[in-house]
């Protein structure tokens, strides 16, 4: 994930058409990250708890009766702050709240920097990280990951692509990405190496921990384009009233994963079981449909799938 205005939940209408065919979701908002805030959600009383799955919860969570979740709440429509500036909402939030309900516990969402979430999970600060994390081998070395969705990378420029950006030849251009994302750590360096190996000017990365600032860099012309997951990309176009546009199609689609401590594979299996139950009762698809992201639905939920 590359992973923001505090608008009301802007539903990304474009996902229902082009992006659904691309099997991903995307929407970048412009609200700011407030790491000091948190929000809690209660398990739905209408959801039947699965005792067998609940038994696989770590003792710490059973005792607390809640799951503490680290998230980068700047990534609309997946996870972002509501108009009150403190309540975390979004597709990922609804999905994991529903998982927690199946397990009979509540959730507490704690906004933080994207690059701090995995460390927070491995250190015990958070029980789980839920923040549009693309599953890859490096992350699976650090943590257990449970797949639940899929999305790819999308280029975004100002409307009309005034800088004539060519994704296959971005040498010498200013390209914005969010810190610690696949786009920042893998995609852009690979493209930059191709430029310098060919004797062309290097790409000039503009890197920020806040996706809102990444988007703003393109809006203001500081950056010629940005790389971001398709869900935030489409939302960026929507929330800026078309001042931005998608360039080309998404690529390198990969699963998103919930992040758990490395040793918590039983917990991971409990989450897989909850997701399968949600798929069977229709709630998984209903949540994605609500957020216009059902093109990214998967059915092969798994603990530590092969990237």
Automatic annotation (TrEMBL):
Domain Solute-binding protein family 3/N-terminal: 66-295
The keyword Signal is assigned to this record: yes
InterPro entries assigned to the protein according to its UniProt record, in alphabetical order: Solute-binding_3/MltF_N
Alphabetic keyword roster: Signal
One Pfam family matching this protein: SBP_bac_3
Signal peptide per UniProt: 1-23
SMART domains assigned to the protein according to its UniProt record, in alphabetical order: PBPb
Protein name per the record: ABC transporter substrate-binding protein
Species this chain originates from: Pedococcus sp. KACC 23699
């Amino acid at each position: 994930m590359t992973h923001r205005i505090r608008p009301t939940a802007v539903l990304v209408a474009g996902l229902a058409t082009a992006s659904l065919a691309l099997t991903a979701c995307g929407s970048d908002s412009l609200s700011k990250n407030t790491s000091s805030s948190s929000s809690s959600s209660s398990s739905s009383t209408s959801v039947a708890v699965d005792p067998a799955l609940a038994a696989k919860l770590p003792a710490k969570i059973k005792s607390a009766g809640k799951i503490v979740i680290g998230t980068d709440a700047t990534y609309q429509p997946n996870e972002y702050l509501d108009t009150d500036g403190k309540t975390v909402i979004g597709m990922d939030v609804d999905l994991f709240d529903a998982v927690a309900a199946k397990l009979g516990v509540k959730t507490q969402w704690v906004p933080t920097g994207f690059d701090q979430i995995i460390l927070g999970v491995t250190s015990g600060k958070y029980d789980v990280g839920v923040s549009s994390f693309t599953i890859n081998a490096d992350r699976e070395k650090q943590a257990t990951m449970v797949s639940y969705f899929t999305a790819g990378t999308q280029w975004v420029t100002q409307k009309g692509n005034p800088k004539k950006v060519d994704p296959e030849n971005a040498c010498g251009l200013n390209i914005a990405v969010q810190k610690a994302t696949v786009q920042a750590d893998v995609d852009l360096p690979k493209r930059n190496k191709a430029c310098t190996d060919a004797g062309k000017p290097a790409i000039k990365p503009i890197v920020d921990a806040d996706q809102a600032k990444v988007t703003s860099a393109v809006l203001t012309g500081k950056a010629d384009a940005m790389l971001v997951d398709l869900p935030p990309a489409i939302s960026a176009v929507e929330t800026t009233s078309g001042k931005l546009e998608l360039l080309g199609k998404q690529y390198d689609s990969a699963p998103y994963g919930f992040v758990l401590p490395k040793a918590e594979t039983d917990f991971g299996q409990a989450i897989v079981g909850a997701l399968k139950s949600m798929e069977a009762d229709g709630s998984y698809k209903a949540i994605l449909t609500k957020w216009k992201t059902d093109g990214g639905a998967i059915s092969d939920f798994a603990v530590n799938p092969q990237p």
